Amino acid sequence: MDVDPFYIPMPLPSVRPALCVYIAPAKIGANGDPHTMHLPTAIDSSNDIYYAVYVPSRTANSLSTSIATKMGLDPGSIIRTTIINKRGLRLALDDDVTSEMLDKQDMRVSVREIEYHPDSPQRQENNFMKFEKHIGLELFLAF
């Protein structure tokens, strides 16, 4: 059997992301209030560029991980992700919300440190259970 020297193999099929969102880093107000993320002053005018984030699956964890990675954050440090809508409501990001998000949704993203306690006590001291404090990150999405 001869080999065709002009044969060009078909390219391998690429995996299409389940969702694409556009993010712009935003500032939280001086008092730590994330509701100011919708204001025009929340975005640095010298760097008002949105960045594309490709999310492999429509789950809250996948969206949070993809955004954290794009922002140069450790995805394992994200404790929770909260959506701030234009009326100021705080909504927990879950799989239901993520599955209904519009493709190519633009949003502002901000991060702040939060204290949290693991579910179980870490040590016992003087017959009292002690909960160790840990520091993690809360991701805010405004759209």
Explain how this protein is built:
It is a single chain. The protein has one domain (19-142). Helices cover 11% and strands 34% of the residues. It contains two helices and eight strands, in the order ββαββαββββ. It has a six-stranded mixed beta sheet, with helices on one face. The protein has a two-stranded antiparallel ribbon with strand order 6-7. A hairpin with a 5-residue loop joins strand 3 (78-84) and strand 4. It is extended, with a radius of gyration of 21 Å. The termini are far apart.
In short:
The chain is mainly beta and 143 residues long. The protein has two helices and eight strands, in the order E-E-H-E-E-H-E-E-E-E. The longest helix has 11 residues, at 60-70.
Task: Kindly list the characteristics that best describe this protein.
143 residues; mainly beta; 6-stranded mixed sheet; 34% strand; extended
Describe the protein's topology.
Layout: E1 19-25, E2 51-55, H1 60-70, E3 78-84, E4 90-92, H2 95-99, E5 105-116, E6 123-125, E7 128-130, E8 134-142
Parallel strand pairs: 1-5, 3-8
Antiparallel strand pairs: 1-2, 3-4, 5-8, 6-7
